[in-house]
Design brief:
The protein has a single domain (about 85-290), classed as Porin (Beta Barrel). The chain has a 16-stranded antiparallel β-barrel with strand order 2-4-5-6-7-8-9-10-11-12-13-14-15-16-17-18. It is built from no helices and 18 strands. The chain is mainly beta.
Length: about 290
């Protein structure tokens, strides 16, 4: 990761010049996938992120980033600004938190494959949000409160909140996303992690996915680190009221070559639920990625 130090331009009011810490990071990835005999070579993830941090005259800090996130050629631009002080922090922007979505997806551990997708879903498309993180003064306890509104059509609002207790070996968290749309139920997630030496376990339990009553999922992710090798396992079972349960599973290994370079291989099974049975697609995935 390369760091650039840029000087802030003096304002028209002759304010003192401050040092802005600017960081550029990113990821470049190429993947090969073979699914039931059909081969595909893809560019995978291509990210570039510019982060900044500065100190205001009153002692508070402002930080944030602009992210160009590309998955297989589809580019999405995200950004967020965070203002921090003794009161805690306030984050605003397209990629800002919404309170209940900060402690989810701990089971997403594999470098390749579909596996677990345990991000809380409130069923509302939003283009920006604001999140307050209070300074609770309690070791290991973190809380978030967030707000967002629908980006297109209507006037649906989303209120989120989350609470987590954790330390170096264990964490337990709860998040909820509530909307003022009576047709959407409150989406929730309970997550837990355990880290014991080379072993990591992450579990997510989702309820009312996309605000739909009865749409639930349970995900488990496990990694075991042995030197430069990381052995990975993910499984996610999704259920709803109309279809049979569907399970996605990934079994993979990642090798840290060094200097940000990784190679990985994974065996991936994706099930699509139907009224009476689930259909499965098996894939083999090999990837090369460099993070800087």
């Amino acid at each position: 990761m390369k760091k650039l130090i840029a000087a802030a331009v003096a304002t028209a009011f002759a304010a003192p010049v401050m040092a802005v810490d600017v960081t550029i990071s990113g990821e470049v990835e190429t993947t090969y996938t073979s699914s039931d005999g059909a081969a595909n070579l893809s560019q995978g993830t291509q990210d570039i992120k510019v982060s900044f941090s500065d100190t205001l005259a009153n002692g508070m800090t402002v930080s944030g980033y602009v992210l160009n996130d590309s998955a297989n050629g589809t580019v999405v631009q995200d950004s967020a600004i965070t203002i921090s002080g003794d009161f805690g922090s306030i984050q605003v922007g397209k990629d800002a938190g919404k309170g209940g979505d900060q402690f989810d997806d701990v089971s997403d551990v594999a470098s390749g494959g579909s596996g677990a997708d345990a991000e809380i879903d409130d069923g509302v498309a939003t283009s920006a949000s604001v999140q307050y993180t209070p300074n609770l003064g309690m070791a290991g306890v973190t809380a978030h409160i967030g707000y967002a509104a629908a980006s297109t059509g209507g006037s649906t609002e989303v209120f989120g909140y989350g609470l987590k207790y954790g330390n170096d070996t264990f964490s337990l968290a709860y998040g909820a996303m509530d909307t003022d749309d009576s047709s959407l139920k409150t989406a929730t997630v309970v997550s837990a992690t355990i880290a014991m030496g080379p072993l990591f376990i992450g579990v997510d339990s989702q309820s009312k996915i996309a605000g739909v009553d009865g749409d639930d999922a349970v995900s488990v992710g496990v990694t075991y680190t042995l030197g430069d090798m990381i052995f990975e396992y993910e499984t996610m079972t999704t259920e709803d009221d109309t279809n049979v349960d569907a399970t996605n599973t990934v079994l993979g290994v990642t090798y840290n070559v060094g200097a940000g370079l990784q190679v990985y291989a994974a065996a991936d099974t994706v099930e699509t639920a139907g009224a009476s049975a689930a259909t499965a697609v098996d894939s083999t995935i090999v990837g090369v990625e460099y993070k800087f």
